[in-house]
Amino acid sequence: MSHEDTTHGPSPLGDVDADPMHRAVDALAAALHEYVDAAVGVRAEFGAHEADEDPRILALEHRVGTLNGTLFDTLHDALGMHPDLTTSVWEPEDDDEHDDAGELPEGTVPAEAFYLGFVVADSPAGASMTLDGVIELLDEAGEQAASRLVDGGYHVMEWAASRGLPPGFGDDADDEEDEA
Asked: Which of 13, 85, 151, 156 is most buried by its number of CB atoms within 10 A?
């Protein structure tokens, strides 16, 4: 991926052939439709967890991910853009408000969750730190980051260090079900 060509320059591109980009979208859409059909069929046979782990589903998820990469590359190569087309975003429902919303100053922008992820391999034999120590280190770093954000004028309503999955902010109903 070169950033030295005219597609990354400051000038408008003018005449661009959109057909390769549309073909990449069509291939991705076809794979997504295939995924839906397979997911409905697999879910009719198995429970949710088993369906998530079904080899047919995993293969289709891999294919969709690969086609997402192809679409990114096609758009990037043709337009020089870096499209963020695979981020999942849920808009809050009209009746959803953060529990702490009343405590925020008027005019505050609605809160968003941010994540900083690490993939950490076990240390070599004889090293002083283990994978269990990583969460402690990240917890300390999280405390420092939260303090810096507050010092910068932001309202940090929650923060957490977690292992395996991102923390489930605002999932109180799910937490209550897990405790039952």
From this structure: 156
